[in-house]
Design a protein that fits this description.
The protein is of the alpha/beta class and about 270 residues long. The protein has one domain: Rossmann fold (3-Layer(aba) Sandwich). The protein contains five helices and eleven strands. Strands 1, 2, 3, 4, 5, 6, 7, 8, 9, 10 and 11 form an eleven-stranded mixed beta sheet that branches. A hairpin with a 2-residue loop joins strand 3 and strand 4. The protein is globular.
Amino acid sequence: MVSEDMASVTKPRIGIIGGSGFYDPGMLSDVREVRVHTPYGAPSDSVFLGRLGDVGVAFLPRHGRGHTIPPHRINSRANIWALRELGVERILAPSAVGSLREEIRPGQLVFPDQFIDMTKSRVYTFYDGPRVAHISAADPFCVELRSILSSSAGELGFERHLGGTYVCIEGPRFSTRAESALWRLMGAHIVGMTLVPEINLARELGLCYATIALVTDYDVWAEHPVTAQEVVETQRKNIEAARKLLYAAIPRIPLTRSCGCSSVLDSAFVG
């Protein structure tokens, strides 16, 4: 349930879930703040509705304004439900990550196509029973969104990688050296703390989802222990790149979806 009259607000078809450092909806025009009440409790913050050009956009800071919610405490079910309740069909999710590969350098962008879930204590589904859904996660990210983001980044001159595996860890601590070495052996390219269960839940509601992974540092496999301050300094530069990318990419997203994300649930139920 939305707490304000939506009549004067452009219906948002695109949702942005802002990650670390990306708390401000200032890139939007005609911004209006709304509270959304969900069956799963309160989202991380108010949702900010506005426009980017002619496109209706909903912006939600993942960690709340001021980064008050740690990764393992984010109410992802409420966040995803709230965006869908407002009319969102596609989600773009900027997120800070560490690099597990020499060729993926701090300041670059990655648009992953796979993930490995190493989280431990999160709520992963809307289907707690009696109805159970077994969604396909073979190709979890929206192919159409990833392509648009990558081509837009290339036109802007940003160094980027299309494809790669994101390993999601529990946090809020960073990896140990042994863990970082293991993630590399597993074939992962980047490491972060917030992708799961956000992507699972978006998929369960038939929403398109793509991560804009903003590389802030090399993880500790590179013999350079990461600090929060190091992440913040690089992230300041990454946030500006993410803003420019969203400005360029969002107007290019077609009105009609042709990716198949909306039909994932068609074959998810047994019995």
